[in-house]
UniProtKB/TrEMBL annotation:
Residues 525-572 form the Beta-galactosidase galactose-binding domain. Pfam families: BetaGal_ABD_1 (PF21317), BetaGal_gal-bd (PF21467), Glyco_hydro_35 (PF01301). Its EC number is 3.2.1.23. Residues 11-326 form the Glycoside hydrolase 35 catalytic domain. Keywords: Glycosidase, Hydrolase. It comes from the Bacteria. This is Beta-galactosidase. Belongs to the glycosyl hydrolase 35 family. InterPro entries: B-gal_1-like, BetaGal1-like_ABD1, BetaGal_gal-bd, Galactose-bd-like_sf, GH, Gly_Hdrlase_35_cat, Glyco_hydro_35_CS, Glycoside_Hdrlase_35.
Length: 605
């Protein structure tokens, strides 16, 4: 029987020493029809293994209702078909710059700060989830003829807590669920992280972007024996909306990789191919040394400055890392597959039809709830991604007073008696002009992404405090949600939304346009396209019912990646849901982002 094991200071495959040369690629960030190409790129770079997280919230969006858990199994099968081993990181917490660190909002809403602890209710929810998930892994372990050689327990727990009983519980759940391959933890190479995040009997690994010798020296202080592994070699970094570019010199990346391998260690390149935060699943961080500062939301692209870029193309870092990895290969490396070809030309797609945000909410939204004494949060409404309209009356007659939204997360477009009065944020939470009563106030609240790392993990979204007129709370709030999931049935959207003619720029709502694939390419298909929305402010885009993710008018990230398999021969359809202020009624489709040149920029890791 084929087996993978930990032997003294190395890994062994069928009794022979083996080094894991792994690369991170998340199946949920790559269109399934493109898995094979991207995995082939990893093999051509010199990797023998692929690693993926598993996002619990993507697969169990409401309690007991599971969505395409089999995607993980299909991804592992695709890796196996190409001769790659696989490492699975099922969490339940994954960070990953993913919404809520992969924890469902209904879990954090229910258990609050008790998540990631030995709390019995939280553990029971994890156990139920693992009961659904683990059969996808167990039947594909290397002992069963599959690719899975290792499974991670939690994720970077030492950066968060010190409840080792919780880690032992999770390891026990994995073992009782049938996982027999080696388990491991991963943490930063610091004493407090390794003390809090590693447990006896489970292999400990470290994560870093440089300084391998020092990182492994710290690890050896805690684990004198066992294989050395960098479970996340940060070859790049992620981006926040409004922040500058993040890039790293390919020569520096290759040098740091070489140092890891010269230490005799295994490695997992994070990310080998980052992909895209489709569907509005991008997470967020809190700034500052204690991660308690202003919200910094993650962009839709998860390119990560990875060696295989968001469009599936080899970058200079790919070739630099391939040169290093070739020295550790059993034979000549395979050639990369052909690079995906983009559109032959650009096309402006007119958005000729539209419906107001109120009409779209009426057609696709939840029933309105209330009146509530205290505004319900997104979690209390059971909303993970989308927008919530809060309505409340200002009694009267009364003189004008400041109107403030306490505990706002994250943005609210405010209307007073149907007239737009401003956009509020967590930091700027009071309308510029006082409000007199009586008046009717509407707050269209948009959550930019839940925190995925640090002590603010699991914080609620929406109006988490209240609406105040001067110092008085306004009660009798009504709330109605428009969920992104409501757009997953294109036929229902087309049938129920009352689209009309679009006259010009401005306003909010759902806009629709059509284009022919022949306008972009000369053949029946294309490998990808890029979509831009000049002058648009904040919202989401769908092509043929597939949600590309969020766009914003801040920062340098203005192009959304369109996977080629989303486009179809003949007529294609674009929807744009604008939440703050539409631009001219058109979008631009074209080749997308150029191939990176490899010029060094801001270092990461």
């Amino acid at each position: 029987m084929t087996g993978f094991s930990v032997v003294d200071d190395h890994f062994a495959l069928d009794g022979r020493p083996v080094r894991l040369l792994s690369g991170a690629m998340h199946y949920f960030r790559v269109h399934e029809a493109q898995w094979g190409h991207r995995l082939s790129m990893l093999r051509a770079m010199g990797l023998n293994c692929v690693e993926t997280y598993v996002p619990w919230n993507f697969h169990e969006r409401s309690p007991g209702v599971f969505h395409d858990v089999g995607a993980l199994g299909r991804f592992l099968d695709a890796a196996h078909a190409l001769g790659l081993m696989a490492v699975v990181r099922p969490g339940p917490y994954i960070c990953a710059e993913w919404e809520n660190g992969g924890l469902p909002s209904w879990v954090t809403g229910r258990f609050g700060r008790r998540v990631r602890t030995r709390d019995a209710g939280y553990t029971a929810a994890v156990e139920r989830w693992f009961g659904e998930l683990l059969p996808q892994v167990v039947g594909r372990q290397i002992t069963a003829g599959g690719p899975v050689v290792m499974v991670q327990v939690e994720n970077e727990y030492g950066s968060y807590g010190s409840d080792q009983a919780h880690l032992r519980e999770l390891a026990g759940l994995l073992r009782r669920g049938g996982v027999s391959v080696p388990l491991f933890t991963s943490d930063g190479p610091e004493d407090h992280m390794l003390t809090g995040g590693s447990v006896p009997g489970v292999l400990a690994t470290v994560n870093f972007g440089s300084g391998a010798r020092e990182a492994f020296r710290v690890l050896r202080r805690h684990r004198p024996k066992g294989p050395l592994m960098c479970a996340e070699f940060w070859c790049g970094w992620f981006e926040h909306w409004g922040a500058g570019p993040v890039a790293r010199d390919p020569a520096d990346v290759a040098g740091a990789l070489r140092e890891i391998l010269e230490c005799g260690a295994s490695v997992n390149v994070y990310m080998a191919h980052g992909g895209t935060n489709f569907g509005g699943w991008a997470g967020a961080n809190r700034s500052g040394p204690l991660h308690e500062g202003p919200l910094a939301a993650t962009v839709t692209s998860y390119d990560y400055d990875a060696p295989v870029d968001e469009y599936g193309r080899a970058t200079p870092a790919f070739w630099a890392m391939r040169e290093v990895l070739a020295g550790y290969a059993d034979g000549p490396l395979p050639d990369p597959p052909p690079s995906p070809a983009g559109p032959a030309r650009s096309v402006r797609v007119a958005l000729t039809e539209g419906a107001s945000l109120a009409a779209t909410l009426e057609a696709l939204g939840d029933p309105e709830g209330g009146p509530y004494g205290v505004p319900p949060t997104f979690e209390e409404l059971g909303v993970d991604r989308g927008v919530v309209r809060y309505r409340v009356a200002v009694p009267g007659p009364r003189q004008p007073y400041p109107l403030t939204v306490a505990g706002l997360r994250d943005r609210a477009v405010v209307y007073v008696d149907g007239v737009r009065a401003g956009v509020l944020t967590e930091e700027d939470r009071t309308l510029p002009e006082p409000v007199a009563g009586p008046a009717e106030v509407e707050l269209w609240v948009d959550a930019l992404g839940r925190v995925n790392y640090g002590p603010r993990l699991g914080e609620a979204k929406g109006v988490t405090g209240g609406v105040l007129h001067e110092r008085q709370y306004l009660y009798g709030v009504r709330a109605r949600a428009l969920r992104l999931d409501a757009f997953e049935e294109p036929g229902a959207v087309a049938a129920r939304v009352p689209f009309g003619e679009v006259s010009g720029p401005g306003g909010t709502g759902l806009f629709r346009g059509f284009f022919e694939l022949a306008d972009l390419v000369d053949g029946p298909e294309t490998g990808h396209a890029g979509l831009e929305l000049p002058g648009w402010t904040n919202g989401f885009v769908w092509v043929n019912g597939f949600c590309l993710g969020r766009y914003r008018s801040v920062g340098r990230r203005r192009t959304l990646y369109v996977p080629g398999p989303v486009l179809r021969e003949g007529t294609n359809e674009v929807w744009v849901l604008e939440l703050e202020g539409a631009g001219a009624p058109w979008v631009e489709l074209g080749p997308g982002a150029p191939v990176r040149t490899g010029a060094p920029g801001t270092g990461a890791g």
